[in-house]
Structures are given as C-alpha cells and as structure tokens.
Design a protein that fits this description.
Distance between the termini: 70 Å
Helix content: over 70%
Order of helices and strands: HHHH
Shape: elongated
Structural class: mainly alpha
Number of strands: 0
Number of domains: 1
Number of helices: 4
Radius of gyration: 22 Å
Largest sheet: none
Strand content: under 5%
Length: 146
C-alpha cells in the first residue's frame, strides 16, 4: 500500500520540481531588473529633458516588471505549498483512512491553477521586457540597402 501511495505522490513531486525551475528563472530575471532599476535611479537626478523622460519611462517599465515578477513568484510559492500539502494529504489518507483523497485532489487543482496564473504573469513580464527593448526604427536605417 505505501508503495502505491509513493507512486501516486510522484506526479505532484514532479510538478514541484518544475515550480522550482521556474522560480529559478524568475528570480534571475528579478535580480537583473532590480540591478537595472538601481542604475536608472542613480541616473535619474543627473538627466534632464528628453533623456530624463526616457529614464522615467524605463523606471516605470522596471517597476511594472518588478510587480509582475513578485506576483508570479508569490503564486509559485503558493502553488508549491499546495503541492506539498497534496503529498502530505495523500500519506495521511494512506495511514489514517480519513477520506482525504477528494480534498487532496482539490488542493492539487488549486496548485495547478496557481502555477498557470504564475506562467501567465511570466508571459506578460517577458512581453513587457521585449517592448522595453524595441530597437528604434532610426537605428535600423531601413532606407539603406546593405
């Protein structure tokens, strides 16, 4: 019986590994955005005019990206906690026979929903990052044949 419970708990554990990998990616992105925002804040007081406006726009974009990344990480941590709870419930059911399987299934569904919401926030953050890195058309020199 315990072997069967261990097999049943493997799927949530694999999801937990995936969550950890995604969190590693997000925390790396978060670190880069934090570093960039610190650099921008240092340059904020030194600029004026159009250059200052560009710095403010980029600071606003960094702030938005930080918020998205923080929310995504929060959702992933919550999902991970739900996955751990699911595994614990499966083992409690095995040893106590308390009818916890429907509750474990519900917690697992919540974990997957949280994971999906975090992935959507990650998608939104990457799209904002790509928008911030758009190369101005003037640099492309489209009218020139190369």
């Amino acid at each position: 019986m315990i072997a069967q419970t261990i097999q049943l708990a493997l799927a949530p554990v694999f999801v937990l590994v995936a969550i950890g990998s995604i969190m590693n990616i997000l925390s790396g992105r978060l670190g880069r955005v934090v570093d960039r925002s610190r650099d921008l804040q240092a340059r904020h007081a030194e600029t004026e005019g159009a250059e200052h406006d560009a710095i403010v726009r980029e600071i606003r974009m960094a702030d938005s990206r930080l918020a998205l990344l923080n929310r995504a990480i929060l959702l992933l941590v919550s999902s991970g906690i739900c996955i751990g709870t699911t595994v614990a419930l499966l083992f409690l059911e095995e040893f106590g026979h308390w009818g916890l399987q429907p509750f474990a299934a519900g917690v697992f569904i919540v974990a997957i929903a949280l994971l999906m919401m975090a992935l959507l926030l990650f998608l939104k953050e990457t799209r904002e990052a790509a928008a911030a890195l758009r190369i101005p058309r003037s640099y492309l020199e489209i009218d020139r044949t190369l």
